[in-house]
Design brief:
- The protein has a domain at about 10-55 and about 120-210: Rossmann fold (3-Layer(aba) Sandwich).
- Helix 2 (about 40-50) links the parallel strand 1 (about 30-35) and strand 2 (about 50-55).
- It has a 5-stranded parallel sheet with strand order 2-1-6-7-8, with helices on both faces. Strands 3-4-5 form a 3-stranded antiparallel sheet.
- It contains 7 helices and 8 strands; from the N terminus they run H-E-H-E-E-E-E-H-H-E-H-E-H-E-H.
- With about 210 residues, it is α/β, with parallel strands linked by helices.
């Protein structure tokens, strides 16, 4: 693989370099998609000198390959399905995964937003940051939530994405920043030397650090 990010932090720097026009703006906020997008969102927010917050969106993965999403869930009951994949699944499988991920979405929402004000993006340029786009289902749910919360402009920033997902998302959001779009995509993890699973503790640490800055 010729283009590989060392880790999420170096990928965050690469994104920040492409978002400098938003630096220091009072109408801009960076939202990290929990959990993998949060470490790089923290880097982007620090470089741009704008607030950091989190958006809890849960991927709905097919039972035998959870990295492959047939949809995603967001706060407020937002649900997005990838019909091409979901149509191949049994309704019972969809219901089981959706129920499990709904419980986890609510748990994470409680964990990360218990002492934070509810998101209000009215009139805000909202930069959504995640670690990659495979099917794009999670990002679609996140963008849908951002618009519902009043965002005036939604910018989706990811270090790597499949061509299909990028093409689909570029029609949904106001701006898509994705520097690496390989033809033979595979999986997001292929493009990082370190792609460990981000923990609740790491997310909490990033949020606490930004509050102290």
């Amino acid at each position: 693989m010729r283009h590989v990010y060392r880790d999420r932090l170096t990928a965050g720097v690469a994104l920040a370099d492409r978002l400098t026009r938003y630096a220091g703006r009072s109408d801009t906020v960076v939202l990290g998609l929990v959990r993998g997008g949060v470490p790089m969102a923290a880097v982007v927010a620090a470089h741009l000198r704008v607030p950091l917050d989190v958006l809890v969106v849960r991927k709905l993965g097919i039972p035998w390959a959870r990295e492959v999403a047939f949809g995603a869930l967001g706060p407020g009951g937002v649900q997005v399905l990838n019909d091409d994949i979901a149509s191949r699944l049994d309704p019972g499988e969809i219901a089981e995964v959706t129920e499990r991920e709904t419980v986890e979405q609510r748990r994470q929402e409680q964990r990360y937003r218990a002492d934070r004000k509810p998101l209000d993006l009215t009139g805000q340029v909202t930069i959504l940051v995640d670690d990659g786009l495979a099917t794009g289902a999670t990002a679609r749910a996140a963008a849908t939530v951002a618009y519902q919360l009043g965002a005036s402009r939604v910018v989706l920033a990811v270090p790597v994405g499949s061509i299909e997902a990028c093409n689909g998302l570029s029609r949904l959001v106001d701006e898509l920043v994705c520097p690496l779009r390989p033809r033979d995509f595979g999986a997001v993890s292929r493009y990082y030397r370190d792609f460990h699973q981000v923990t609740d503790e790491e997310v909490a640490s990033e949020l606490a650090r930004r509050r102290l800055d």
